[in-house]
Amino acid sequence: MAVTGKPIDRIDGRAKVTGAAKYAAEFNQANMAYAFPVRSAIASGTVTHIDAEAAKKSGGVIAVLTPENAPRLKAFNREELMKVEAALGEDLVPLQDNQVHYFGQFVACVVAETYEQARHAVALIKITYAADEPKIDLSTELLHGFRPEKKAYGATPAQLNANKAALLLQSAPRHIEQTYRTSTEVHNPMEPHAIVAMWEGADKLTIHDTTQGVMRERAAIAYFFNLKPENVRVISPFVGGGFGGKVSPWTHHFLAVMAAQVVKRPVKLVLTRQMHHGCKLETAR
Predict the structure, then answer these.
(1) How many CA atoms lie within 13 A of 210 on its CB side?
(2) What is the bridge-based pairing of β-strands 204-209 and 232-235?
(3) Which of 68, 108, 130 lies closest to 251 in space, CA to CA?
(4) Residue 248: pLDDT band by 50, 70, 90 thresholds?
(5) Domain 22-134+185-277, what architecture?
(6) Which residues contact 86 (CB under 8 A, 6 or more apart)?
(7) With contact defined as beta carbons under 8 Å apart, do 279 and 188 qualify?
(8) How far is the C-alpha of 37 from the C-alpha of 276, rounded, in Å?
(9) Domain spans of the chain?
(10) Predicted confidence band at 158 (pLDDT cuts at 50, 70, 90)?
(11) Nearest to 242 by CA among 15, 92, 23, 29
């Protein structure tokens, strides 16, 4: 109780409210390029063809990364990631194959001289899909559910307690039965996900990122890019909100690092607010 009820000194508060705090997207570098992801227009299936010719000819475009030309990263392996104390926001490494697992998944990436040029070029890309029926109805898919047997990232195995409350409920003097359904809710940190990636030669990497888990990110990036952890530096002096959504690296982190590796320049990637929500597609269809 020595702390409860007592005022807490927010040592970063003054810097944040006066604008002195420097966030990830503000660490501009000399000769920096800008990356903008291309998002899937289907929820399940495969990408059969990406026509990026118009985008490549668009002003300022330096490169267009697709599953055909993106750097090959180490294969996803949950057990190996746990050994190095790394975790991902989703069990997916981008641009390693042509599979689409959800609507809005990153399936390509444009790198250009300016943010506006990169975003414009994305609209010029035409993608052909072979769409599958997405599994989106919980009541139907729940029948195919299973209990995970292995621990993931230190979590305990799932507990199944179905019907254990039936007898207690039957003995209750009053019964009320009602089904409630709520729509998806998305938390929004004021600072969007943003990263600036800079390679120093072929084996050293510096990242300015808005992250709540610098060590997790360092371990994950080092693992997938086959680097020594001590050669990966993740810098995050201020985070403008995260709520757990910035604890582990997501697929855009890998896009930025791959883009910087390909163009051999520092690369900045900032997600749009629409990408945070996943509610409005701003990419090729």
Answers:
(1) 25
(2) parallel
(3) 108
(4) very high
(5) 2-Layer Sandwich (3.30)
(6) 216, 219, 220, 223
(7) no
(8) 13
(9) 22-134+185-277
(10) confident
(11) 23
